[in-house]
Known about the structure:
The chain is of the alpha+beta class. The chain has 7 helices and 7 strands.
Amino acid sequence: MIRPPTAAQRRLIEAADPVTGRLTGTQAQLAALVKRGLAFRHPRPPHDHFLTPAGHRIRETPAGEPAPGAPAAAESGVFAARVGGEEAEDAGSARMREVHSAWQGLLELRRMTNPGGATDRPCGWERTHLVRAAALALEAAGHRPATGDQGSGYRVRATPQPEAIAVHEPDLTALRACAATLEQAGWQVSEHTEPRTRERYVLASPRRV
């Protein structure tokens, strides 16, 4: 579970620019937020610090409450979308707002870290968190993840191939809709058939240009 920020760290987060998420503070304070996965240092001068998707979520969470989705967060502390196979959880309007906020934060991360501020292709964070990044794109677009051992719904899984994930969905129409969503989000996609089971699935990798 994500450790909640200290009171001082929360004040920095709440004082961040409401649009860009740009942070101000001492180098030690900013470095502490980076270590927790709540901020990142821009690679280009003047090397300002900005909130990550997890940092944006902290800002929208009332003080004293755990960040929504924290138990399912990745080890990096960044927001974890549902990859499929989790136990049944609330899928109401609150969850939709959380996912929307995380997706907007990720688009901002793309803008701040991709050359030329491009938001139409994945950024460095997504390339090191392939499964979570693809799942966030799918969940933000309204696709339904599989629940537990339930057959219907998408499942995003790692593959032996570098920079590639697999999306499984028993409904072929839904599978192809997932592929279209990932393509629109800047991923290269291709449809394949598993030789043994004849199951159709999609391979996707982040587009570079």
